[in-house]
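Comment thread on ticket #2218

A.B. wrote:
> Attaching the input chain for the structure job we discussed in standup.
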Amino acid sequence: MFLLVASPAYAKYQPPHSMPGPAADRILFKGGITLDLAPSSIENGDVDLYLSSLKTTAAQQLLSKSSVRVIQVPAGSVSIILNPAPAPSGQLNPFAIRNVRFAIQYVINRDLVVNEIYKGLAARMVTHVSPFDYDYLGVSDIVKEANIRYDPDFAKKIVTDELTRAGASLKDGQWNFNGGPIHLKFIVRVEDDRKDIGDLVTAELRKLGFVVDSVYQNFGPAIASVYGTDPSVFEWNLYTEGWGRGTSERYDASSINQFCAPWLGNMPGWKEVGFWQYENSTIDQIGQRIFKGNFSDASERNQLYREATRMCLQESVRIWVVTLLSSFPITTSVQGLTLDSVGGPNSLSTLRDAYVSGRSDLKVGNVWVWTERTIWNPVGGFADVYSIDIWRNLFDPPTWRNPLTGLPSPFRVAYTVQTSGPSGKILVPPDSVRWNAQSQTWESVGQGEFSISKVTFNYKNYFSSKWHDGQPITIADLFYSIYQTFDLTYNPAKSKVEFAISTVDRPYLDTFKGFRIINDTSIDVFVNYWHFVPSYIAEYASVTSLSMPWEVLAAMDSLVFDQRQLAYSETAAAKYQVDALSLVEENHARLVKTTISNFAIKQSFPQTVLKVGDRMLASVSDAESRYRAAISWFNQTGNMVISNGPFYLKAFNPPSQFAEIDAFRDSAYPFRPGEWYFGEPPSIEVQGIQGDFITIGRDSKFTVTVKGPSQLSLNYILFDPAKGTTIQKGEAQPVKNDTFSITLPGSLTSSLGAGNYELSVIASSDAISVVTERAKLLEASTNPSGTSTVIATTSSTPSVTSSIDPTLLAGVVVAAVVVIAVTLVAMRRRGKGASG
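C.D. wrote:
> Ran it. Output below, let me know if you need it in another format.
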């Protein structure tokens, strides 16, 4: 069951005041609080809430403290990424062989990780889709049929067959190639429970015959070693990845690409020019179809998602281990919390409405405020959760994800969507414009241009307000941001510098057909994208976050592309041996300020960028006023983080691991405390499965009761654990809102042999983005008389099969021994333990 401290959803919010901006006057972020120190920091009142997930033992200890709440949500996951690059001549990288990578799935003892390392506060995970995700409804049968289990003997057979075929030999229990042992360099994170996972996997790899060098590192050095280097230089062979989630998702298009498809730049090689690249054109094509909305309906989208998930599992570049029930401690004195269904307190709205009665501040703890890899810039930075934890409170995005449903929703823009998709077209008015990187002008699209969808955005809530430095937000900021995105991608000189960014962005930007100014606050965006949920079209068409004023963006562009003193991305910084631009680093901020000062001295501003058609979006006097304000901002704060949200960055001190954000109380700021309050998400639970047997040759009926909010749905799978195959799946029939009926017709049951079968049900709701699963082991016979067993009452998928889907293992002869009786006994024992 999805775990969360319960309180009524949408409970009445009691604002501490009615001023514009957030509830608290300031938030103090304190880093350097390790996971071991976090419990005492919370208990002693040093911090009010902690934004990193606690270690399991600490979370269990705090659950008994009356002054502390522990919020547990599926906000994190752990994977092990393998380096698939081919080895230099005369050497052998075993992970360049797909079947060897797949074999590693079988040396990960996920049940041990869940039960011993995380003490049950985790769920098994074998694909990028966690058993809590809404998309699990569509891929759960793939997960079951894959039969990923802990089976080191089976893994050893695969490895032996493949490495022998590759020319390696096993001598005295150790693999050798060309006269030397095969070494694996394993980067293991040490700040959390991933160290224990790394040690566990290291022991298994050594049993397989590899020499493993475990390199224990914390965040900064590990990120540099893995994501900042060419895979072919082999600074690493394996790495214990950790992923945090800050928002819910209903219909995923990002994770499937981020974790599986090379085109998005998160697979080994990272799309950096000159690096060896992992490639898979088929996953890229399917992933881009999902990303670009190239499907005819929900059914086709779901089928594409299934295909990509299956292929990603086959490739096994990432080995998924567990989804974490992340534990976030919060003192009971904190009021006004909005918690995301998945991210918990890592929600856009959490710190905007939270407060402690009688106090003007909030104290927030974390492992880090700053690390060696901290990069604060909106173009190629904000890649780590520690920076995002602060940044999300400083700017207002145009759209966001509803923290309960996971669906896109308006935040600071209003929008209307018109679409002729999936197959129709909308005429793009000829006076619409798009950026021409060759002529460096906005040009009219002309006659005969069409798009699938049009979204009209109204930016009144931006343009009637101000940036943090007091300057008005205008349409010039909007169009400079759009220009910056397109010019970086289509201007050859810029795309050469920031190759990884431009390569990843291009497939997305290619779908935009034009922009049209309607009036002082609204524009039309024409895009070749469609989705069966219109709000996804609006989210896709919102090409800019509008997070910083044009003069700051222009100064950054000058530093990166003209002066070549800094880079936007970490990979470009490493390539050109410069620093990655970070607006919280005083030296970098000073360079931005100096560049703006030079703009002012020369009385220059980007006229061609800010001229759209016959309309000039800014003037010299506008620019001069902005330049003065930006320079003054740096002189006051020492940073150049100028944005538009409810808080502004007052102080950022890397050596002290400290940041302070203060309330932005400008009278024109459009939001007040409570306007984005959603409370805490309700839970969903499968309470029972009534019906114990399958009578062969006759209809067998089962009744399932579900507790949850709003409109409930129930999917089911009848699975044969002996063969590892799905017999039937579908949607249960609602009897009433909380009761469902499943009928297995006699025509189906007559084809079953005597034995045990698993009935798995997955409940979902239109009011919450997470799902929950429960399974029951049923006896099938012509005259059933045994007892049924509940296998699982959590959202974890039980490991119940003892065969393997041969399509997942190319060229490998399946030789696993099937011992049905032993397997079923083990299932019953696990089931009883889980249900108790």
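A.B. wrote:
> Thanks. Noting for the ticket: The domain at 75-323 is CATH 3.10.105.10 (Dipeptide-binding Protein; domain 3).
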